[in-house]
Amino acid sequence: MKQRGFTLIEILIAMAIFTLIGLASTGLLTTVIDSNDLSSERFEKLQQLQRAMVIIERDIQQAVPRPVRAEGETQKVVMAGGEVDDSDGDGIGFVRGGWHNPQLMLPRSTLQYVAYRLDEDRLERVYSNYVDNVIGYEPKTRTLLENIESFTVEFISPESNSDDDDLSWSESYQGEALPTAVAIEFVSKDFGLIRREFALTAGSA
What we know:
By secondary structure, the chain is of the alpha+beta class. It has one helix at about 10-60; strands at about 65, 70, 75, 80, 90-95, 110-120, 120-125, 140-145, 150-155, 175, 180-190, 190-200. The chain is about 25% helix and about 30% strand.
């Protein structure tokens, strides 16, 4: 029996089919790669958010009732919140303890002045090696998060009745004692509205 070869049309059809399969496979691979890139980017942003929240929580919960000196004068306020530190939204500034200094090898104390503010769309941590204002020394700034649309800080005064089920939050604070609690709230373009509330056990100190 004589074998019949492929006609030109059959060969062209087969080539077209293989080409379509190749294009489909390439498109699928590209989609998988793009999806993987998006997942990696999302994961990195989530890690950045988690690191920022750990830093904020550590600072606030280690706040101490220690006022700062500015231009040679001691201030009475130990925590300031609201429109402070040139923030585009709310801001908060205070002294925290527990700044690690092994065997006091570094020329500084274990206290540190820190502040949080919104600069354009960046949530920044402002900090200083010295608790009190030193002439000629500029505080350092670290960007914790980007793509932040708003930043709000709220407080519960130490004078509030802890037995009251409806404790009211205040949007500003200038206290000679630490507040009972601090809440931070911000809107992220990546994660939406985020709010955290922190209790300060030293609020009555």
